[in-house]
From TrEMBL:
It comes from the Eukaryota. It holds the Pfam family CREG_beta-barrel. Coiled coil: none annotated. SUPFAM superfamilies: FMN-binding split barrel. This is Pyridoxamine 5'-phosphate oxidase-domain-containing protein.
Amino acid sequence: MLFPLLSLVPLASATLLPFTPQHIFSNPPSHDEESALRIPTAYESAVLGRRVLALTPLGTLSTIFPSPHDGAEELEQRPSGLAGMPIGMMDYIADCEDSGNPTILAINIATSFRNAAAGSNISLSLQWTPPYPPSKRISLSSSEKEAVPYSAANLPRFSLLGYLEKVEDADTEGLKKCFVDTHPDSKYWLPGNRIHTSEWARFVVQDVYWVGGFGDRAYIGWIDAVDWKNVTKKEWEDVRLPGEKKGWKEWAADSLREWEL
Ligand SMILES: *[C@@H]1O[C@H](CO)[C@@H](O)[C@H](O)[C@H]1NC(C)=O
Ligand SMILES: *[C@@H]1O[C@H](CO)[C@@H](O)[C@H](O)[C@H]1NC(C)=O
């Protein structure tokens, strides 16, 4: 009795595909014969990531508090003992240089930029947020009342790791227009304003960690920074992310093309 039951298991899981994710937070082992879905390559994922970067105006900057220096803790009135502690804070970004290195308007007194100035490395985390809810969604219950209108675990997110570099004043006119187009309120804290000292900064990407969605259909892993920077505007303009248009299906397998089918 036991043997026939067991032999049904692979069949059952195969017929559920692609409706039940088989590998959620990691990719299946390579040459997995059972995988019915094509997983995008790291380069294709870089193209998707560059599109996310181009379309996403907010990110989370993570930095690490420095060792105590020159009474900085008292000056900043922060609790003692935070050295080495990471802190993530939302900030405005804009893809103004179209080089894979986002533009940031760094306010000197803000925690992320103080930590960076004190020598912290920095990461920038982004997530893709579809403008429309899916018409067919991933859901284990049939409730329509769920707080999140889509399965965020199956959507792209990534972290850029690197450092900040000041953009020289001679190169900032175009950045200013681009950044204010993306963030109109940022005109109040542009470099030279009377309230806060600020400067244009380039987030120089050294490494990219990508989670494209469920691991049975999306790439999860590192993307080469050379590939990341080599993606052309034409490439990222030619792909689509899930939920860019109304009527998308969350279970679409090929993240490059089939979300809208
Ligand atoms: C920044 O990261 C690099 C690795 O990329 C590491 O060698 C260096 O020590 C880090 N700097 C600090 C201040 O932690
Ligand atoms: C960059 O992309 C182009 C095609 O767009 C390709 O021919 C070239 O080999 C790539 N360079 C690197 C370093 O990957």
